[in-house]
Amino acid sequence: MYNVFTFIVPIITGIIVIILLLLLLRKGSGETFDKTRTQQGVFHTSCPLCGSGLEKGQRVKSVLFKGTPDSMMEIYGCPHCYPPNNKIKRICPVCKTELAPGNIVIARAFLKPDKTHVHVLGCSECYRRKY
Ligand SMILES: [Zn+2]
Ligand SMILES: [Zn+2]
Q1: pTM of the model
Q2: Which H/E stretch holds residue 25?
Q3: Is residue 107 a part of any domain in this protein?
Q4: Which domain holds residue 113?
Q5: What is the pLDDT of residues 74-107, one digit of tens each?
Q6: Is residue 94 part of a domain?
Q7: pLDDT tens for each residue of 25-58
Q8: Could you tell me the distance, in angstroms and rounded to a whole number, from the CA of residue 19 to the centre of ligand 2?
Q9: Closest by alpha carbon to 110, among 68, 76, 78?
Q10: Which residues keep their CB under 5 angstroms from ion ligand 2?
Q11: CA–centroid distance, residue 70 to ligand 1 (Å)
Q12: Residue 109 within a domain
């Protein structure tokens, strides 16, 4: 009986360690996936429209239109300022005017394997006025 235990205990310990390692690895890969997703928004610390600080998990609502060589991005706002409300105004970072409820900010997105760089071009008003 004693001999059996001296064999089984290290095996069970080994299995537990392997399971823990697998769990850790799975958690780790999940986190990197999350990071690449937040990088789509790049500004995950503060909202580009209202300047509100964003907590972990809060994302700026944006839609990415993939293209070559550059992609375009439509930015709607963060959970604080979108959907449009009376409390927090959405200000265009380019023309500094308040966005009308139906207006959005347009940005150019440079997709790189490690990071997405977003360059804000303007809102529906000031960006399209140039054309
Ligand atoms: Zn916002
Ligand atoms: Zn503007």
Answers
A1: 0.63
A2: helix 2-39
A3: yes
A4: 40-129
A5: 999 999 999 999 899 999 999 999 999 999 999 9
A6: yes
A7: 776 544 444 444 444 444 457 899 999 999 888 9
A8: 53
A9: 68
A10: 92, 94-95, 122-123, 126
A11: 24
A12: yes
